[in-house]
Every structure is written in C-alpha cells, then in structure tokens.
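To: structure subgroup
Subject: Chain for Friday's discussion

All,

I'm putting the inputs and outputs inline so they're searchable in the archive.
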Amino acid sequence: MPSDPGTTRYKVIKMSPRNPPHRWLLSVLAAIALALVILSSIRDPHTRAIGAMPSSSLLAESRVKRASPNCSVIVNFGIQKSGTTSLAGFMTKKGLLVTDYSGLFHEANRLDAMSDLSAFLAWEGNVPQDNIVLKSLNTYNFFSDAPYNLLYPILTRPDFFGSDACYILTTRKPDTWLASIERQMGDVKSPHALPSALPQGANKFSTGPIRRYMYGLVGFDRSMLTVYVRFHDQIRDFFRKARIPLHEIPLEWSDQKRCRVISAIAGFDDDCDQPGIYPALNVKDPAKKDIPT
C-alpha cells in the first residue's frame, strides 16, 4: 500500500543493553574533562602532570620567625656576581637569618649537598627532613644565590612558603657580569676553575660541582653569557605566567636606591641614609663603581 506523502516515517533503533544510549555522552564528557586538565596544567606553571604533591607539610611547623613585616621569607633568585653577597650583607644588618651559596656548601660536603639538591629537584621538595636543602629552608628566612635560584618553580608554589613570601631578582648588565665572572673563574690556577687538579679528597671544598650544575662547565667560557641571559628570560617568563610579583634590583642602582626599594618591599624602616647600611661586599674595589666586579 503506498504511503501517504504527508506522513513522517521514523526508523526504530533497537538499543542493546551493552550499548546504552547515554554511553556516547559519557565519552564526550570524559574527553572534555581530560582536555580541561591538560589546559590547566599548561596554563599553571605550578601544576604537574602527575598531580601536585603538597610540600607545606614538609616544612617544620616551628621553622624560624618571619623575615620582615611584609614577608614570611625573602628569596633572591639572582645569579652570582649580580650583587647577591652585598644583598645578603644588607639582610644580615636587618637581622634576618641569611644563607646563600657559601652558607649551604660550607656547612656540608659539596658532593653530599649536590646529591640532596638533585633529590630535592627530582622530587619537587618532597624529601626527608634530613635533606640538606630542606633543612636550610627550615633554618633561615633569607635565601640567595645558588642553589636557591634553581628552585624557583618549587619555592614559589602556594603550598610551600605561602602567598606572603617575597621574591627578588638581582640583575646586572650582561657584559659587566661576564667580565666579573672571568676574573673570578678564568684563572686556571684557581680552585674554582680546576677542582679536579686539587689533592685527593678536596671535593669537599671544591666549588666545581655546583659550577658544572649551573653552567654545564667548571672553568670560564664566554658561553656562560648565554646561560646568564637564558636564565633571566626563563625566570621572568615563569613569574609573568604564574602572576607572582618579582622585584628586580639592578646592580647599577645606587646603594641608597637599592636600600629604599628593598625596604619598601620588606617593610623595613627606611634608614638608607645611614652610611654603610648597604654594604659593598665581594668586590675588587668598592670605591670604583665603574669597575665590574
């Protein structure tokens, strides 16, 4: 019998119990959820693919006092020879508990410290309490220079030092920085340059392991300038994407300006007109500011 052309015909689809009609919808929703997780991990530098493991529980509850009225801790991520030692001297005068490259690596065997640093980075801070790096993070409230400047992806996590930690980046013009590094590391007779030439067992005192870790080499080479520039590009990009304040302190500023800017960040009293309040440390000739050191 011919069908009525005005009648709509419907096809009946038999659904199997093994293939319910909503399964396709569940698959779509699962794909969308996975895409959102991937996008959030790309946007947030602190999110890891395997899921963030909280580190705040690893910091001792009785860790040291606050660094200043405005900052729970202060961390300088500047690279060596950018004014890190002078900044540490200023923080010491302000009563902070200060540690830096020399502090960490003078308190422990260099190779032990490097092993614990590698573990701290690999496990993103989730290490035993006797880890040398973690112990220092519980002991001091100002950190500067290597290896702390390598830890910025971990130390800046909200679940580590907290949202009121303050972050500084000491900087220096690349050409004067390279000249200063050459004076420090370019002498082939210096233990900085040739740790392997020291007597057996001298690795305890050698700076070679951390130099190689930072620059990929031990002695001086002009390629270190590439490391310097890339390091600053990466850390600025990280803080910009994470939307965390990073306060840059150029070495070319006057001592008074550096003092005032840092005091404003930390909440220190402004005593920056006091002679010598911002010391010039680890320089060849503090009186000659035009000479890169």
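Points worth raising on Friday:
Residues 46 and 157 are 6 Å apart (CA to CA).
The domain at 66-173+225-266 is CATH 3.40.50.300 (Rossmann fold).

D.
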